[in-house]
């Protein structure tokens, strides 16, 4: 029986301690996002956890396919996600500006008791 010991840098990502930790983190993040959805938490919580799940998933795929060793510049995922986040932030700001333009007093408008007419 021939056993081959892989050097730590040649060990597959799925069988490394770092791989197990990253996959456990992804599972916990997916679980927290699921619980946020079930508990009907505010949408920003769900969106932020969904973004974190997406980023963690793509990094795990990157390491499984060993693209970090094939591509010289490993920072391209950060560039892509940074550009996507920038575009979404600009779009969100434009939508908030538009909403405040049409409703300058805000979403919750309080009225005084004496303003109500009782017939």
Automatic annotation (TrEMBL):
It comes from the Eukaryota. Keywords: Membrane, Transmembrane, Transmembrane helix. The chain crosses the membrane at residues 21-39, 45-65, 74-97. This is Chemokine like factor. The gene is CKLF.
